[in-house]
Structures are given as C-alpha cells and as structure tokens.
Amino acid sequence: MSARAAAPLLALLLVAAAVQGEDTGAVDFPDEDNEVLDPRKIVDLLGEEDYLDVLVGGGEDGKWLSLPGFGLFDNCINPPPECPNSNITFWLYTREIGDDPEQLDVAVPESIEYARWAHGKPVKVLIHGYTGDKDYSPNTEIRPAYLKYGDYNVISVDWSPLAPSPCYVQATYNVALVGNCTAQLIDEMVRLGVAAFEDIHVVGFSLGGQVAGNIANYIRSGKLTRITGLDPALPLFTTISTSPRLDASDAQFVDVIHTNAGWKGKLMPSGQLDFYLNSIIQQPGCSWDSSCDHARAPAYFAESIASPQGFWGFSCSSIISFYTGLCSPDDAAELVLMGEHANSSSRGVYFAYTNPTFPFAKGHDLGEAVESLHNATSQVGGALGETAFNATAGAAEAAGAGAAEAAAHRPTLHNDN
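Above: the chain sequence. Below: its structure as tokens.
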C-alpha cells in the first residue's frame, strides 16, 4: 500500500488517538471558576475506577463537584437518584393526540392507564441528548416521520433540566438516573397493560443513546426487544466497563448508526449491527460542521421509516479494513438494510453511502460507491491525511501546516444543537 493510500488510515488513527486521550503528559486544570474543564480529562484526573464511580454513582461524597474548574457548573442540576423525578418527563404522541401530547406520570398511574393510546400498536421511545428537549432532535425528525407512516405510540423523554449547556459532565452523571426512570415508566406501562413489552423500541440520539443503554441496567419486565443508538455520545464514555454505556447486550437487537465517529460519536462498534456512514467522521453536505455530521444520524433514521429506496450497507470486518480498501461494495455478498426496517437477525459492521441532501438514501444503486469510497476517505484525510502522509515522507514543515489546518476544522467537544 502506498504512503498516500495509507494517509486516510493514518488520519483515522490520529483522530482515534486524540479522542482516546493518549497524551500521557501532565493535565492542566483551570483554576478560575469561569474556565471550562475539558470533561475528557476527568478520567486522567480520577482514574478509571473512580471515574466509573462518578459516572454511575456520583463519587464518594460528591467529591467530583469540588474539582478545580467546576465553578462554572455550580448551577447545574444534580438531583437525588430517585424515580419518579420531576426533572424527567414523558410525553405521549399519537395520530389522535396530534401536537398536544399527554404527559405520562408514573406517580399518577391513571395518567398512563387512561391516556389516549393507539392500543395494540408499536411503542417508540425517543430520547434526546445534551442540550436537547422533547421538541428537539431526534424528536423533530423522527416523531412526525413515525406518525405520518402509521399508527404508533411515540413517547418523547424530556430530561432537558438535567442536560443544559454547559453541564456536559453533570449530564453524563445524570444518564444513569434517566435510564432508571425510563425503565420505571416502561415497567409501569407493561404492568397496566397499555403496551406489550415486545412492541417497545427505544431510540436514543447522542447522550440519549447512552441513556438507552442504561435502561437495561434497571428494567424489570425483561430484556428490551430493540434499542437503536443514533451516533451514541463519545466524550466520557470510553470506559472498558459496558455498564455505563450502550452495548450489544442491552437488548435482543441493538443497531447503531455512526455519523461523527471519533469526535462527538462513538468510534468503536456499540451494537450487534453497526452502520458507519460515508467517511464515518464527516458527512457529505456538512462542510466540516461536526454538529451537522452528528445530527445526520437522526435525519437518516427518520428518512428510513418511509424511504422507498432505503439505506443499504456492505459488510466489512473493521473500520481499518474499510479504510485500507480491503472491502468494497463490489466485494459484498449481500447488502443489509439500515434504519427502522433493519433485519433484527443481521449482525456485524457495515458501511453505507448517502446523498449530500435530502433524500439521503441511495437505495441499492451503489454503482458509484467505489468512487464515493475514495472521495469519502479523501474528505476525512483532508488536512489530517496530508499531515500523516507528509510526516511519513519526512516533510516536517508541511506536516505542521496540515496539523494547523486540521486543528482549525476540529469541532468543539460536544453540543447536540
């Protein structure tokens, strides 16, 4: 493989190294209350064991709240780990209800039992991420798509008081609580007979994807039939333990769509069926805007609900194999459908391509996919790829320039808006 052919792969490895925090140097934390602490450095400060304690239980005596640089977060909400919780609300939408949703309150069972359910129809539970709410992504894309397509019960989980900007660290701490309270709601729905457990499908975007994984830690009705993770959040979810994050064991079928992998979204596979779109990091039409790349996951999924073309992916054993050209659509024994109508028996890692604008789905027509592969990898390579290539060629000066350009394009840590 030529050095230039290897550039996109080296670029990917550079991104992965940056995300995983391989810098072993001293960690400098801000001393002033108005400075922002990079949440990813918390693991370096606390260590893996204490970090897991923080993420799952808040840490001994809330010691994480006294860390330097947390003054900015003094006004963030850290509620008692109790369900029901007033900071977490649930809203039912059906075709009959329209745009005036009914609130489901576990503390008031009648609100659940006598809600205007579409009885006997599937239940879709939508969970937003950091800085979101019930009227923000993925709800705005996916909820109307479901209700236009058929009779569904769509429940929007609103935990916005626990995930406002700039409270990302606290939001990750609150993920377990939201998962617990959502599990409690699902158990109550099943107990009251308003929904069949096997008809419940949880869809979580970004930090909401990690909430979806946490439901499995608390639910009592059984193992969820399906969880769909839409670019599950990466920052502070690089743990070895699978308990705090979405993984393949959290439901009978866990499918994941990656659109900003290695930056805002998880790089490594998180389900039984993982789809990586386009260059896996950057999406066509987004112009190095990581928020746009990240938000394409719910956009693609919403389109998949009624798309006549569908999103079809080809199998590849790993991301590295994809980037080194060891697999392509031409080599695929079969194509696998991504999104709402994915086959629950499908397993593995798949790669797919989209159009730069709506409709994004390309259907079975992958005649230009090989060319798209080269275009996608060159997009990812961009500045970082040139940096890696020039570095291997010994052109230090050019490499420094490429790195500077890449840094200028690198997105902020995390914001789902």
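The radius of gyration is 21 Å.
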